[in-house]
Amino acid sequence: MDIRAVERFLAVAESSSFNKAAQRLNISQPALARSIDGLEYGLGVPLFDRTPRGVTLTSYGKLAYDHARRMSSEARRLRREIEAVRNLEYGELTVGVPLGQTSGVLAAAALTLLSEGRRIKVNLVSGTRTGLLRLLLLGDLDFLFSALYAADDIPAGILQQPFYADRIVIVVRRGHPAARRRQPKLEDLRRRPWILLGLGREFEPSIRAMMGAEFDQSVLRSGSPIFVRNILAGSDFVGLTHRDAVSSELQSGELVELDAVGGPSVRDIFSQQEIGAIQRADVAPTRVALEFLTIMGDVMRRGEARPHSGSPKNKR
Question: Which pTM value belongs to this model?
Fold first, then answer.
């Protein structure tokens, strides 16, 4: 199938208009229409319903769309790989990182990859893990860096490479009234305002089990580590967050981890999570992606970002 026709099909589908798609592609509308007609003729089915208001995908078009996305992504990947072979200093990497997920490992590896004047583009795409997994399977991401799936819940067609373990912690700013006691009572903390990083409503049962009741004060939820850190630094909010997101602040003493008593511990309620790379099993990593994953493993072994939780290994 002509990849140019596939790209033109995607442009029309995403613009819902032949006119807008033609402008986006910088070609004439008749030339675009001929490409789509030829694609429909080759497939033997109509891909679009044409109306005076624009075009919409038919049921056949919807089926073709995801396949076309993957073909387009693979074509881009091929072009990047060819360019990387021609020029070893060139490359592009796109990594999906769920909201609320942050890592010193990722940052240290990116700095190493981009060193020595290399012309490499690194793109970080945020979203939910479910949404990013779809982009990975469509070929829009090289890999996903996030909490790994449990062994009995791994989606079909992916490989997982663990790098380290992360856990949920309770933190407050240095000088916070609750920090005067390293083991404050959960009952007392419940009366204060809380901010939760990357913990959606699906965590509510676990949070209630830990607190023994609902929060008594305001609750903020955010997927932005920077926002959460700023709130904690400038207020008496209590934070419930992944330790990895605040590891630098804990090491510097800007934030203090609390070991609350008077109820189930955080470690009892929230299980430890393996953090690592999620990749497609049917596509070999690009040269840049493979190098980046190797660098991440080296960073862990040197202990530059976090203690290593075991040698990286692939598992289905």
Answer: 0.63
